[in-house]
Amino acid sequence: MTIKLEQELIVTSNKTIDVRGTNMEIRNAAGITVQFAKNVIIHGLHIHQIIPAKGGKIKDGEKHLGLRSASDVDGISLFGATNIWLDHLSLHHCANGLIDVIVALNHFGKGLEERMPRCRFGFIHVVNNGYN
């Protein structure tokens, strides 16, 4: 199955997108945005050829319709989101980036040895964080 999103897909809190056992792709379309949401799992999607999509009114909550500008053409964009699990995804040829994660205002405390921001084979911006 191929999904072509005319506008970005806004994923709200406590949601799972799990396509195990199928061949599902999002292509030649807008990507997925997780903004100020928590407890989200995205598993098994193929996301590619993400292109600019128009803005407009987009449902960003159960009872809220928000005005959005044009999409930022990332495959998956995480902003102000917590407890997000991205697993077994295939991403390529997204106009801006594959996965864009905004990491800011975190506190990494004493005795923490792992699970701090880590990036392999890419670039990240980590700002306004406290490390003990």
Short structural description:
This protein has 132 residues and is mainly β. 0% of the residues lie in helices and 53% in strands. A hairpin with a 2-residue loop joins strand 8 (56-61) and strand 9 (64-68).
Describe this structure in words.
This protein is 0% helix and 53% strand. It has 132 residues and is mostly beta strands. The strands form six sheets. It has a four-stranded parallel sheet with strand order 1-4-7-12, with no helix packed on it. Strands 2-5-10-13 form a four-stranded parallel sheet, with no helix packed on it. Belongs to the polysaccharide lyase 1 family. This is Pectate lyase.
Quaternary state, please? single chain
The averaged pLDDT comes out at 86
- The first-to-last residue Cα distance is 47 Å
What fraction strand?
over 45%
Structural class: mainly beta
Tally the structural domains. 2
Q: Helicity level, as a percent range?
A: under 10%
The biggest sheet amounts to:
4 strands, parallel
Number of strands: 17
Number of helices: 0
Element pattern in H and E: EEEEEEEEEEEEEEEEE
Query: Per the principal axes of the C-alpha atoms, what is the gross shape?
Result: globular
* Rg, alpha carbons: 16 Å
Question: What strand line-up does the widest sheet have?
Answer: 1-4-7-12
**Which stretches are poorly predicted, pLDDT < 50 over at least 5 residues?**
none
Pathway: Glycan metabolism; pectin degradation; 2-dehydro-3-deoxy-D-gluconate from pectin: step 2/5
Protein name: Pectate lyase
Keywords: Calcium, Lyase, Metal-binding, Signal
EC number: 4.2.2.2
